[in-house]
Amino acid sequence: MKAYELFTAADPALATQMLDWFREHDRNIYKSAVATLAQSKKLRLVFVQKKPLPEQYAWILKTLRSKQSDTIGEHLLQAWFMAGNQDLLAQFCDAMGIEHDGKGSVTGDLPAELDAAKLDGAVDTLVAAHDPKLVTLYLYVFNLQRAGGWDTLTAKLASDSRLVLA
Description:
Elements: H1 3-9, H2 12-25, H3 27-40, H4 45-49, H5 53-64, H6 70-84, H7 86-96, H8 116-129, H9 132-143, H10 151-159
């Protein structure tokens, strides 16, 4: 799934959680993303900023669901996971045996293949410790890090009933 498809399929509460996190922890990214999205729709930033927050979020989510917003959507998801969900990323990397900096940022190359048994264990660990919808979204975003994704992860996302976006 591409980022715009993830925003379409995911529970809107996850997008709200992400936007809230950026507003609280990194307003520059929030403002830059809104400006980029507004510009892509040929709107002035102030048009979006003047809306009440629930309307801003609704507009942002609607815009992120469009194919033309795929790149900015993917960048937002990556930034949110890298900065706001480091424990989840670190737990996944640890369970998969992927070298990382302690915060979930991979320090070497991504593996060519993902071991199915390790992946099963990683998913069990993550679902026990985090919201399954958040885990699912992360796994889809992780799968975007390699052209075509990993067959093992794609199959796991399709077959595990705990891994649903909405």
